[in-house]
Amino acid sequence: MFKKLVLLATGMFAVATTTQAVAADSLLDRINNKGTITVGTEGTYAPFTYHDASGKLTGYDVEVTRAVADKLGVKVEFKETAWDSMMAGLKAGRFDIVANQVALTTPERQATFDKSEPYSWSGAMMAVRADDDSIKTLDDIKDRKAAQSLTSNYGELAREKQAKIVPVDGLAQSLLVVQQKRADFTLNDSLAILDYLKKNPNSGLKSAWEAPAEEKLGSGLIVNKGNDEALAKISAAVIELQKDGTLKKLGEQFFGKDISVK
């Protein structure tokens, strides 16, 4: 019996020692020891993370992350991963952080992960024809035709404001329907609309309304919970990038607008 108790105590000590060792090996220590920060990203989600014509991985989130790594004094290694398995990969330690326009809105994710200072903000935006000045706020869309996906949050918003829904499949079709005057407007994510307007300056469309600052969601770099020191360093780097104009420059490059402020 005494032998069993000794073995049990020894086992408990080993577990405690291992736990302490893992805790001591913090994310910040690992990044500094490697001299590299490993980043999970899709690589297929333009304009945030994608490959340009030359095959180079780029995008707003990618370039922000490179700039953060520079501020931290380390190199950056991207591991392209499908979105469906990305957060599980972070939890399993396949990479140090995730950079993929993550706002971390669900209670389940908030219990498992932490988000840095946001480097982008987005909310609802309304696109109309460039020559249409009759719609300027949500109060103007009653009885007007809205090109919306039937099950989307934006479609629900249009219905709440008593607009008449013209069913479409996705953003591209909704913008086309507005261009063709089969609908008066469409509501969608501001970053998606800004990206389209930046890439299609002769589309004949414009932004007519944008959600107020208090309704916008911020996206940041994501780490596993319990890495407060690393999170603080990363957030400090993001704040520096905003102060020195880097985020503004990158926003204008990819969206034609600074998206780092509400």
TrEMBL record:
Major localization class: other
UniProt keyword annotations, A-Z: Signal
Keyword Signal among UniProt keywords: yes
Taxonomic lineage of the native organism: Bacteria, Pseudomonadati, Pseudomonadota, Gammaproteobacteria, Pasteurellales
Localization, UniProt: Cell envelope
Keyword Magnesium: no
Pfam families: SBP_bac_3
Protein name: ArtI protein
Gene Ontology CC terms, in alphabetical order: cell envelope
PANTHER family for this protein: L-CYSTINE-BINDING PROTEIN TCYJ, MEMBRANE-BOUND LYTIC MUREIN TRANSGLYCOSYLASE F
Family as reported in the entry's similarity comment: Belongs to the bacterial solute-binding protein 3 family.
Gene from which the chain derives: artI
Domain of life: Bacteria
